[in-house]
Structures are given as structure tokens and as C-alpha cells.
Amino acid sequence: MNADMRDPSPSPAYRPTVAEVAGILRPHANLYRVVPPVYQTQLLASLAEVWDPRHRSLLDIGGGTGILAEAMRLVFKLDRVVSVDVEDRFAPGLGIAVATFDGRTLPFADASFDAVVLNNVLHHVARADRIPLLRECRRVSRNPVYIKDHLARGMLDRFRLALLDIMGNVPFAGMLRASYLTRSDWQDLAAALGLTIVAENTGRYRSGLFSQLFPNRLEVTIRWMPRPT
Fold first, then answer.
1. What DSSP letter does each residue of 10-64 carry, written as one string?
2. What percent of the chain has pLDDT over 90?
3. Are 82 and 96 in contact (CB under 8 A)?
4. N- to C-terminal Cα distance for the chain?
5. Alpha-carbon dihedral of residues 23, 38, 99, 28, nearest 10 degrees?
6. How is 89-122 classified by DSSP, letter by letter?
7. Which of 36, 57, 58, 175 matches a 20 to 30 Å C-alpha distance to 225?
8. Quick check: 84 pLDDT over 80?
9. Torsion sign across C-alpha atoms 108, 72, 169, 23
10. Who contacts 36 (Cβ-Cβ below 8 Å, separation ≥6)?
11. Cβ-based burial of 66 (10 A; exposed 0-12, middle 13-18, buried ≥19)
12. Rounded distance, CA 58 to CA 50, Å?
């Protein structure tokens, strides 16, 4: 990857429609034959807002079934995508490579990928393991680390997010144990890793009454880059 990959303001990538994302996910998850993937579509759109479309390879950490990594491969037109998780729950028939790991050490050489992404993963990682895992992310990425996660302001937000995790993870046998991060937590992690937040957005994940019960400000997508020296 050349030096201009450090540009903190890349042109947004293509944003998919709900129908397009449903077409990608349905062959791998029957749920999306009856439930439109509105949340997943907004997640991809939010990621597109901070994404550098020059990326050709991606490591997806904590990929679960791997179907979102498959969607990223197709939406962002990537040549190589690898999804890793601590358990093998990957759906069959994906067009990506998959692997398990120990949750701390990534089995890849330095600078193996153009980018690394963690989608709704870090709040499930034990506090003591977050910095070691993110150091590994920085090691295997040539530059950016992308994170889609949550922002909690207090106990009410933590309760809201716990309910959202139950609704989102139970259908896929996903992890429910969580510790949600505040803005200060995110800033402290970036500082400890020598990274800086160069782009950030929320997105319209929910509408109407649902958005009042679970405000969209609870969602955040971040692009981290190495701090200039």
C-alpha cells in the first residue's frame, strides 16, 4: 500500500440497498428470507462513510457466521477477505477464507491486510484483552483499523445496549457477555495504541418509536489511523 493510503478523507464507498444486502445474506441465513436486514445495511453504509475504496484486502475479526464479511467482500469489491473468530460458527458456502484464533494473537504476518475491521466485537472482549487484541490488529493492518461498536453514556444506555445485544445475537447463538465503552474509553484506547480517530459517524439504524427507545447515538463507526510522527 502506498503512502497516499494515509489520506484521512477518502471518497465514500458504494452504499448498498436493503434488497441488495438481503440478496447477499439470504443464501447463508434463512432469517433474512423473512426479516429485512435493515441494521446490517446501515452498518455497511456507515462503514462506507469512513471506508477507503482503494482497499483490496480485509481481515474481519470476530466475524461470527462470516456472512457480514461476505457482504463486505461484495459491497466493497474486495479481492481477499479473511474472517476469524474464537469459535467455528461460519456459514458454509462463503466466498471468503475463515479461521479460528485464540482471541488475542492473530495468525498472520505483519502488514498482511490493507485494513482490519471489528463489527460489534470489542464490547464483548474482556477489558484486559482489548489493548493486546488491538495491537495485533494494528500489526497485521497496513494502516487503518475500522471499528463499528457502541457508545454508552451511563447505566440506562448500558441496559439499552444489553437488550439490543440479546435481540441481535440470540438468533445466531452469538455472545451476550458485554462491557460497553464510553467516548472516553475509545479515546483512551486510541491513545494507548498510538492511533488517532480520523473519521466517525453514527447512522440511522432505527426509526420511529424504536429509535426513541434505542437512540441511534448508541451506534458508532470509527476509522483509526496511526498517529503522525
1. PPPPPPPPHHHHHHHHTTT-GGGGTS--HHHHHHHHHHHHH--TT--EEEEES-T
2. 82
3. yes
4. 18
5. -30
6. -PPTT-SSEEEE--SS--SS-TT-BSEEEEES-G
7. 175
8. yes
9. negative
10. 18, 22
11. buried
12. 15
Q: Count of residues for the chain?
A: 229
Which three three-digit cell numbers place residue 213? Answer: 427507545
Q: Find the domain containing 175 and state its range.
A: 3-226
Mean pLDDT of 59-66: 96
Over range 101-119, report the average pLDDT: 96
CATH of the domain at 152: 3.40.50.150
The pLDDT score that the predictor gives to residue 82 is 99
Name the grid cell of 25.
445474506
Residue labelled with grid coordinates 424504536: 210
Q: What is the pLDDT of residues 166-195, one digit of tens each?
A: 887 665 555 557 899 999 999 999 999 999
Confidence (pLDDT) at 143: 85
- Cell triple for residue 118? 471489528
Distance of CA 187 to the CA centre of its chain: 17
> For 6-29, what is each residue's pLDDT tens digit?
444 445 557 899 999 999 999 999
Question: Considering its fold, how many domains does the chain have in total?
Answer: 1
One-letter amino acid for residue 13 of the chain: A
Nearest to 48 by CA among 86, 76, 68: 76
pLDDT of residue 6: 40
130-177 pLDDT tens trace: 999 999 999 999 989 999 999 999 999 999 999 988 887 665 555 557
